[in-house]
Amino acid sequence: MQQEPGSITNWLSKLQAGQSEAAEPLWKRYQAKLVSIATQ
To answer: What average pLDDT does the segment 11-29 reach?
Structure first.
């Protein structure tokens, strides 16, 4: 089964394969939520 280009699973697979550029879309997607949780 092929993964969608914008899927979290795809980004995580790329990170595990050493493709550090995959961290950027993950960061953009979750940064605000993580900061919100951290500052509660």
So the answer is: 93
